[in-house]
Amino acid sequence: MVPALETERLLLRPRAAGDIDDFVAMDSDLQVRRFLPPTFRDGFDAAAYRAALPERIAMDHGPGLGHWTLVGRAHPEAFVGTALLIPVEGKGPDVEIGWRLPRTHWGKGFASEAARQVVSHARETGLAELVALIHPDNAASIGVAGKLGFAPDGIRDAYGTTFRLYRLALENP
């Protein structure tokens, strides 16, 4: 399970059953899903997704790994999105970082802010490296990865599709 984290504007808390409506609302938007793997992007079924989320929320990804729900610090009832730190395809060995926000929160720096804190947590957890798997056309996420110091490292097939692979070595203090 992941610990609660904070940034200047955000609270990152472990994803919980009470977040299901927010996740379904966010992911029901095709624009939010457009760079996700085709099975989720094109085959999205809100009822099936809602039914599967409790099991996904309960999944143990290992110490310090999992999914966060992002909410506003000033308004903790305001859902801002999600961030994750999980083994690629659930098995690793690489650990990936990811983020997704509803359109209403795009372009406000929330993804970079949350991801920066997740990278810091990964470093403190003792991880040596992180990867980000990003759709080649997702310029916004490529920009976030660049701001965090991730470097391009070719392509990688995962989750039934092909992504650009980005890596970040974590130098532990």
What number of domains?
1
Helical content stands at 25-40%
What about the largest sheet? 5 strands, antiparallel
Q: Mind telling me the CATH superfamily name? A: Gcn5-related N-acetyltransferase (GNAT)
| Content-based structural category | alpha+beta
- Overall residue-averaged pLDDT value: 96
Biggest sheet strand order reads: 1-2-3-4-5
Q: Percent of residues in beta strands?
A: 25-35%
What would you say the CATH architecture is?
3-Layer(aba) Sandwich
- Number of strand elements: 8
- What is the element string, with H for helices and E for strands? EEHHHHEEEHEHEE
List keywords for this structure.
globular, 173 residues, 5-stranded antiparallel beta sheet, alpha+beta, 8 strands, 3-stranded antiparallel beta sheet
